[in-house]
Design brief:
Elements (H helix, E strand, L loop, with lengths): L11 E6 L5 H8 L2 E8 L2 H10 L17 E3 L16 E4 L22 H11 L3 E7 L8 H12 L11 H12 L9 E9 L10 E9 L13 E2 H10 L2 H4 L11 H7 L11 E2 L3 H5 L32 E2 L20 E3 L5 E3 L2 H7 L12 H10 L3 H20 L1
Parallel strand pairs: 1-2, 1-4, 2-3, 4-5, 8-9, 10-11
Antiparallel strand pairs: 5-7, 6-7, 11-12
Catalytic activity: a 2'-deoxycytidine in DNA + S-adenosyl-L-methionine = a 5-methyl-2'-deoxycytidine in DNA + S-adenosyl-L-homocysteine + H(+)
InterPro entries: C5-Methyltransferase (IPR050390), C5_DNA_meth_AS (IPR018117), C5_MeTfrase (IPR001525), SAM-dependent_MTases_sf (IPR029063)
Family: Belongs to the class I-like SAM-binding methyltransferase superfamily. C5-methyltransferase family.
Amino acid sequence: MSSEQPVKPLIRKSVELFAGAGGLGIGLAQSGFVPQMVVEYNKWCCDTLRDNHGILGDDGRSDGKSPWRVFEGDVRKVDFRPLAGKLDLISGGPPCQPFSLGGRHRAYDDARDMFPQAVRAVREARPRAFVFENVKGLTRASFLSYFEYVKLQMEHPELVARPDEEWQDHLRRLEQHHTSTRRPGLHYQVVTKLLNSANYGVPQKRERVLFVGFRDDVDARWSFGPGDFTQEALVWDQMFGDYWERHSVAKKDRVLEGRALQLSKRLSVEEKPESLPWRTTRDAIGDLPDPEGAKSSHQVLDHRFQPNAKVYPGHTGSYLDEPSKTLKAGVHGVPGGENMLRRADGSVRYFTVREGARIQTFPDGYKFHGAWTECMRQLGNAVPAELARVVGDSVAARLNESEAA
């Protein structure tokens, strides 16, 4: 076995916007991007950030170093100009505009749309790179024009909307500027990717869209692969490997469903996939005690049974031997929505906060503030920390290579 120790990531300065409970920031910190400022509006999220990031270190782990500076309040009140030229990265998940795109609306400073504030932060701080994420719904066909509008703003952050200018008119000016041969000022090369977290080692089928941008003077040549984990490899492991034995699952509970069942009919023992198996809900939480009636569960942080879970149309819980369904923020039906575990016998129970944190790949020592519903809201809005780390490693590698060239 090699005696070499893992190389510590090069420490780079960043700013985290719309931080929520901190999932994106944790993963990026593990890649070496240490926040100089963390901006978040929600009180409970800020309590969570302050409580944990006094104990999380430069790599996002609990080692007692480098507390994060949390700014609790409206991002529109933050002046990023003092940070100009001092940052390697700005990151965050700007809340997307909720209004119908059928009408005409102001493009600038709408209280319900924080993308302009993300662009303002980039414009004022001029980071070498940025990573912004949002929900898959932003890529729907009905949002196509707005999606392009967001991307063009990020590519040309100094072409600001005029007072009272409609977003469609601003989009036209951005398109004209983008196709011009004379484009002075600040510009970024932006790539967008729709990612399924399960393909990157997260025990959850969670799709997010990424905007990754590099300043024009950074020769990043960045791209992002499809991930090292696949459902085919998981089903092969369940059919021909030792998945069930590793987890001591009784034969009567060894169930395949949906596409997994279809895949099982096409796979053969001789053709083992080269990819890694998707991580399942059982992989994530199987070592935790059952919180229902288990006294030992009270010894695990945030691992308490939440009663009254029920199945209703469209919400049937997550099968234990696949990645979980997307954790939701509690606005889809009953509190907790889809945040349920479905056992082999068809019964369901809610995930505990600790189980939700495992599924979102937060560190085990991470403590969430608020009642169960509030904690699950924070988790449902979070970026999986492991997905953020994989993205952060990729961005950091390109920055390192551009500097060495």
